[in-house]
Amino acid sequence: MDHSGHGMTMDLPPFTLGRGLEWSADPFFLVACLAGLALYGWGVVRLVRRGDKWPVGRTFAFVIGVLTIVLMMCTRLNDYGMVMFSVHMVQHMVISMVSPILILLGAPITLALRALPTAGRGRKGLRELLLMFLHSHYMRIVTHPAFTIPLFIASLYGLYFTPLFDFLMGSTTGHIVMMVHFLAVGLVFFWPIMGVDPGPHRPGYLMRMLELFAGMPFHAFFGIALMMASQPMVETFKNPPASLGIEALSDQNAAGGIAWAFSEIPSVLVLVALLFQWYASDQRQAKREDRAADRDGNKELEAYNAYLSSLHARGN
Fold first, then answer.
1. Over the stretch 257-274, which tens digit does the pLDDT of each residue have?
2. Which of 180, 202, 182 is nearest to 134 (CA)?
């Protein structure tokens, strides 16, 4: 039985990290990741050629983010993830919480808006269509916390604790759809919270932190539920191949531990990113105020001093 389409998952030897990291490319994700890197590189080169700058840190974050997807989907980890709950959970956690954060820190939408040429007056090119999409009613809905937080939670409980997971794991197409879904959910959840790109929903920094901490505990609860279960809860992983030498319940307990531990990792990453963004925003605001003061000769301060003087004169 070959779920993944590129590895005989029923005959896998016992899992080791070395075996898991062997190359075994999923064609869909390999092509998609290479295309993403190529398009991002095109945008950076276009900016540099016209004399504009693009932060190296953003490029680094985006490339590492895409490579984490390659690591999860184009190695034997993807084969082992078809029959081992613990390995599958590593894939899920990385693709839904680590990869999106790094990709968003790469600001791909901002890069596209700066790199794409503008269409002529009255015409709509790719840049104009992208702007329309960003400001659409649809985007306002899918980036609102009333939508993103329930979706983030439902992607765990509504998938693993229903027959939907077994259905998707039964075919290559279903497996690809599920992994793309994990990535998309992570992107729409973290984008309003710490994404660099402009978006229709952009609350203050304190509210963003609240949104983050509203979603993360449910990952921990999900992990604890798996660890405390007295029997396998997911049909797909109830009968692991004998060649793996594992027991289904202990593998499920390991999967629960991974889900519980991963709830902390993105929280720390996003919190650090938010604090840096908050500090940078305050610095930019201070510089704008300084420039404004230089332009008007501190008229606002002078007006305030005149107001104090008039109060003092009245008192006398």
1. 998 888 777 777 777 777
2. 202
Cβ atoms of 134 and 188 closer than 8 Å: no
pLDDT over threshold 70, residue 18: yes
Cβ atoms 32, 99 nearer than 8 A: no
Cα separation, 119 vs 286, whole angstroms? 35
Q: What is the DSSP letter of 162?
A: S
Residue 75 backbone dihedrals phi, psi, to 5 degrees: -130, 180
Gyration radius of the chain over CA positions: 25
User: Who wins on pLDDT, 52 or 304?
Assistant: 52
Picking from 66, 149, 50, the residue whose alpha carbon sits closest to that of residue 108 is: 66
**The total number of residues written for the chain in this structure:** 316
Are 228 and 294 contacting, i.e. CB atoms less than 8 angstroms apart? no
Q: Is residue 50 over pLDDT 80?
A: yes
Nearest to 235 by CA among 223, 221, 252, 250: 252
3-state SS of 76-121 is HHHHHCCCCHHHHHHHHHHHHHHHHHHHHHCCHHHHHHHHCCCCCC
pLDDT digits (tens, 9 = 90+) for 277-300: 777 666 666 566 556 556 665 565
Tell me which amino acid residue 189 is: F
Grade residue 2 by pLDDT with cuts at 50, 70 and 90.
very low
Tokens at residue 2, please?
């070959």
What does the block give as tokens for 197? 């790109």
Give the model confidence (pLDDT) of 195-213 as tens digits: 788 777 677 777 777 777 7
What is the C-alpha to C-alpha distance for residues 186 and 92, in angstroms, rounded to an integer?
A: 10
pLDDT of residue 290: 57
Q: Which helix (H) or strand (E) holds 266?
A: helix 265-296
Which amino acid belongs to residue 9?
Answer: T
